[in-house]
Design brief:
The chain is an alpha/beta fold. It folds into two domains: 96 residues, ATPase, nucleotide binding domain (Nucleotidyltransferase, domain 5, 2-Layer Sandwich); 132 residues, Nucleotidyltransferase, domain 5, CATH 3.30.420. It is built from twelve helices and seven strands. It has a five-stranded mixed beta sheet, sandwiched between helices. Strands 1-2 form a two-stranded parallel sheet. A hairpin with a 3-residue loop joins strand 3 and strand 4. Helix 4 runs antiparallel to helix 6 and helix 9 crosses helix 11.
Length: 262
């Protein structure tokens, strides 16, 4: 049985809301109760948040074997790997490495307000900066500007600024990244942003080779659906790269099965 519901970062979302959303999700399973449960959650790298989620699941699923991991761990498992490196670029960005002996390391994943270089949110912000700088210099906004104005339903640079400041959620910012990819063939600034994004994503991976030398699993909606970005990242990584072909939730199933085998 597959059910879906709204997500909740266990480190940043109010505990009551996490409880409500998870309880509503589990209720949709009816009388079915699993023998093992693996939850891959954003924010699970924070020990207190991870403990809260585990306690919540154990309370809702009495007698169930429960494991809580960071959502990047699911990607590696979904790729059928116990060791390797994961690079995710979607709304946010993060790299994760796991060695055969269980040692782990992460780079990035700071959140869109302070980091997430190379992500959809970051790309959209860089596009806005480039377009607004052109406006300040009295230049034409160019193909990138035209696409960004259209995406924000803004008539000019001043209206664009107002529209951007109304976007309070990372997902709404990330949606604007399409303006960059749609104008990359016609606007040098768009191409430069994509190259810069690839460099930033590769920079997340490179330090992790001290722990394990690949392979690198590429994941995230942005990285997997924007060929120019994926190709630019591959060119900058001296590792074998493979695309995630399974949904990350398959990794949770695999890790839950491992709990039963112990």
């Amino acid at each position: 049985m597959d059910v879906e519901g709204p997500g909740a970062n266990v480190a940043t979302v109010e505990h009551r809301l996490v409880d409500e959303r998870l309880s509503a999700l589990l209720a949709r399973f009816g009388e079915e109760r699993p023998d093992a449960c693996c939850a891959g959650a954003a924010g699970a790298e924070v020990p207190a948040a991870r403990s809260r989620l585990r306690e919540l699941l154990e309370r809702r699923l009495p007698g169930c074997r429960v494991s809580v991991v960071h959502d990047t761990r699911l990607v590696l498992a979904a790729a059928g790997l116990d060791a390797g490196i994961v690079l995710i670029a979607g709304t946010g960005s993060v790299a994760y490495a796991r060695a055969a002996d269980g040692r782990e390391a992460r780079r990035g994943g700071w959140g869109w307000l302070v980091g997430d270089e190379g992500s959809g949110t970051w790309i959209a912000r860089e596009a806005a900066r480039a377009v607004l700088a052109r406006a300040d210099d009295g230049l034409e906004l160019g193909p990138l500007g035209a696409k960004l104005l259209a995406a924000c339903r803004a008539e000019d640079a001043e209206a664009l600024k107002a529209s951007l400041h109304e976007l309070r959620e990372s997902g709404r910012w990330a949606a604007l990244a399409s303006a960059v990819f749609e104008s990359e063939a016609a606007d040098p600034a768009a191409r430069a942003i994509i190259v810069h994004a690839a460099e930033a994503l590769a920079a997340l991976v490179t330090p992790l080779c001290d722990l394990i030398a690949g392979p690198v699993v590429l994941a995230g909606g942005l990285l997997l659906h924007r060929p120019s970005l994926e190709n630019a990242v591959r060119e900058r990584l001296a590792f074998d790269c493979l695309r995630l072909e399974q949904p990350p939730v398959e990794g949770a199933v695999r890790l839950a099965e491992a709990l039963l085998a112990r």
